[in-house]
Amino acid sequence: MTQQKRIDSQLGRPFRRSGIGRRPAREYGVWSQRRQGGGTSFRQGVKGYVEEIKKVLPLTSGSIRTVLDVGCGVASFGASLMDYNILTMSIAPRDKHVAQVQLALERGLPAMLGVLSTHRLPYPSRSFDMVHCFRCLVPWTKYESGTIAVWRKPTNHIHCIQKLKLWKSTRLCVGSDPDASWYKKMETCITPLLNVTDIHAISGGALGKWPKRLMTTPPRIKSDRIKGITANTFNEDIKFFAAALMKFPAWVMNVVPYNAKENTLGVVFERGLIGTYMDWCEPFSTYPRTYDLIHAYNLFSMYKDKCDIVDILLEMHWIFCRHGSAIIRDHVGIIVKVKGIADKIRWNAKIFHSGPFHPEKILLVDNSDE
Ligand SMILES: C[S@@+](CC[C@H](N)C(=O)[O-])C[C@H]1O[C@@H](n2cnc3c(N)ncnc32)[C@H](O)[C@@H]1O
């Protein structure tokens, strides 16, 4: 098949795959099992429901910034939390509730296909401040009969180990990387928190309150757990890019290749932002026409020996909203190749130079009608 034919045939491809699954993380878990008929419904509306939760959890304090909503329906819960400056990642599979995640994304809310099942969800350990599950149809073994249950994760494992001795409950996992969660099977053990010596210490380091948290050096960087990124690099290069984006009425899904040299996804969450692991040689866990802008820095260089540029560009084409745009920064040789394929997909793409002798170029794709 010629490259153009392959592009044309794949442009008309049908919906692909659902997400893979994993366990809840950082702080609070809210499980609710009110059974009141099918479909999405909150007895006093979602606002009344959030008001109820506010009575027991500090939603307005800035200490809960990121939430994972498991079995999100049309993401009304996540939409409602926006009033509190809380960013919710809503997940649901593609099941009899059909295109709920598509609807959420079309409403402008962060959402992904995802199912809590046998695999870890594509996020690192200790990523979300709160996990929520309202009639999410996950067969929990406990709390099935109550209307609402709130569980708070311990701040370290000293008390946990003490309690385990007493309760003889599930063992702590040994030897598996807590941040690895790409095609990683869940195990019946509790992922241990980082070691501390003081029972009052917070494992992994304390996080500031939102919005201060965004600009504070994340604990994973402060403690040198990310190769190649120091507190200085963070302060000089990284901090202000995110801050610049915060001015706009947009949210960013920070996508980190699962096998990137530096696994920075934990840092993203520590800053109070959201994201996911991804393998660009596979489809993204979303629906067609769901993102307005794709920003890719050195992505094509990273994947050049792993899969075809055409496949990645077709995936991006599938993800774009109707007038989707892209900013692609890469080595000149790669940018020239990407531009050739972008023309075949009939993207409106232009190369911009970073300076006459600069090895990096920028490809700007603007598919809007203006
Ligand atoms: C009854 S709806 C409730 C939707 C929403 N939480 C609400 O109350 O408005 C059940 C939701 O759980 C999702 N779901 C079912 N099994 C799931 C699983 N194993 N993991 C994640 N979500 C699941 C469904 O796709 C659907 O979004």
Automatic annotation (TrEMBL):
Name the keywords, alphabetized. Answer: Glycoprotein, Methyltransferase, Signal-anchor, Transferase, Transmembrane
- Indicate whether Cell wall biogenesis/degradation appears among the record's keywords: no
Record flagged with keyword Transferase:
yes
InterPro entries xrefs: Put_SAM_MeTrfase, SAM-dependent_MTases_sf
**Pfam families given in the database record:** Methyltransf_29
Q: Write down the EC number.
A: 2.1.1.-
> Which GO terms fall under biological process for this protein?
methylation
Compartments, record wording:
Endomembrane system; Membrane
What GO annotations for molecular function exist for this entry?
A: methyltransferase activity
What membrane topology is annotated for this entry? Single-pass membrane protein; Single-pass type II membrane protein
Q: Which SUPFAM superfamilies match?
A: S-adenosyl-L-methionine-dependent methyltransferases
Region Disordered: start-end pairs: 1-20
What family does the Swiss-Prot or TrEMBL record give for this protein? Belongs to the methyltransferase superfamily.
Which PANTHER family does this one have?
A: METHYLTRANSFERASE PMT19-RELATED (PTHR10108:SF968), SAM-DEPENDENT METHYLTRANSFERASE (PTHR10108)
Protein name, per record: Methyltransferase
Q: Which organism is it from?
A: Rhamnella rubrinervis
